[in-house]
Write a structure and sequence with these properties.
It contains 14 helices and no strands. The chain is an all-alpha fold. Helix 4 runs parallel beside helix 6. It is globular.
Length: about 260
C-alpha cells in the first residue's frame, strides 16, 4: 500500500492534479470519523497492479497504455475509488474532460473522505474555472487527519484562489503549505510570484532562492527571476537568469516575453 501511495503522490505532483493514494476502496465509506478508508485495515486490491502500471505509463507519457491499464483496473474492481481516480487523471491528461469528471465523481462517491480523490477532483474543477466547488473539495480533503501530504492540497487551493483573484486567501493557503513542508517547490514558486506581484521583490528573491535549493529552475521561475532582479537593480543576476532562460528554454513563451521586454 505504501508503494502505491508513493507512486501516485509523485504522479500527481508531476501532472499538477496533486495528491496520492493510501487507501483501498471497494465499499462506500460510512464511518463516523473523518478518516474514511484511510482508517481501515484492508488487504491489497486485486487491481493494484493495473493501477501502478497506469501510473508509471502516465508518468512516462505513454497515455495509450496508461489508459488501457486504468480501464483494466476499473474492470477488475469497479467499486475501487483509486482505480476511478487514476482513470480520471488519464482522461484529464488526454483532454477527455467529460469522461474525466465522470470518474472523479465516481471516486469521490465511493470514498467521500479520501483526501487524494478529493484533491484531484478539486484540481480538475479549478482547471475548469469552478473555483468555489474546487475549494470545497480541497477543504474536505484537508479535514482528513490521516492525509499524509496536506501541503499538496493547500498548494492547489492556493493556486486556485490566486486564479480566482482571491490573493489573501491564496497567500494563507500557501503559507500553511510551507509550514507543513518548507521545501515544497510548487508552494515556494507560487509565493515568489505573489510577493513579486505585491511589489515585494526582496521577498520574491528569497522564495526563489529557496525554490532553487530544492528544484530545477523552470521557464516560469527563470522569467520571474529576471523580473525580480530587474526590480532590485541587480543587473548581473538578471543577466544570469536571462542566459539560463534562453539556453534552457529557447522556445518557451517566457523567452518570447523576455525578447519583448525592455532589457536585451
Amino acid at each position: 500500500m505504501r508503494r502505491r501511495f508513493v507512486l501516485l503522490a509523485a504522479l500527481l505532483v508531476a501532472v499538477l492534479a496533486l495528491g496520492g493514494c493510501a487507501g483501498t476502496g471497494g465499499m462506500r465509506a460510512e464511518s463516523g470519523d473523518d478518516t474514511g478508508e484511510l482508517g481501515r485495515v484492508k488487504p491489497s486490491d486485486p487491481s493494484d497492479v493495473y493501477v501502478q502500471l497506469a501510473v508509471e505509463y502516465l508518468r512516462s507519457g505513454n497515455f495509450a497504455v496508461a489508459l488501457q491499464n486504468a480501464k483494466k483496473a476499473v474492470m477488475v474492481s469497479p467499486r475501487y475509488a483509486t482505480a476511478h481516480n487514476v482513470l480520471a487523471l488519464v482522461y484529464q491528461r488526454i483532454g477527455e474532460r467529460d469522461e474525466a469528471e465522470s470518474h472523479f465523481r465516481k471516486a469521490v462517491d465511493l470514498d467521500p473522505k479520501d483526501p487524494f480523490a478529493l484533491n484531484a477532483y478539486g484540481s480538475f474543477l479549478c482547471s475548469d474555472g469552478r473555483f468555489e466547488q474546487a475549494d470545497g473539495m480541497f477543504q474536505r480533503a484537508l479535514q482528513n487527519p490521516l492525509y499524509e501530504t496536506p501541503w499538496i492540497a493547500q498548494t492547489n487551493a492556493g493556486v486556485c484562489a490566486r486564479q480566482a483573484a482571491r490573493i489573501d486567501e491564496a497567500e494563507s493557503y500557501l503559507r500553511r503549505a510551507l509550514q507543513a513542508n518548507p521545501k515544497f517547490a510548487p508552494a515556494l514558486l507560487q509565493m515568489a510570484a505573489i510577493t513579486f506581484e505585491q511589489g515585494n521583490a526582496l521577498s520574491a528573491r528569497a522564495y526563489l532562492q529557496r525554490y532553487a535549493e530544492v528544484a530545477d529552475h523552470s521557464a516560469e521561475s527563470l522569467w520571474l527571476g529576471v523580473r525580480t532582479e530587474r526590480a532590485l537593480g541587480d543587473r548581473d543576476q538578471e543577466a544570469s537568469y536571462r542566459l539560463l532562460l534562453r539556453s534552457r528554454f529557447p522556445d518557451s513563451d517566457q523567452v518570447q516575453l523576455l525578447n519583448e521586454s525592455r532589457t536585451p
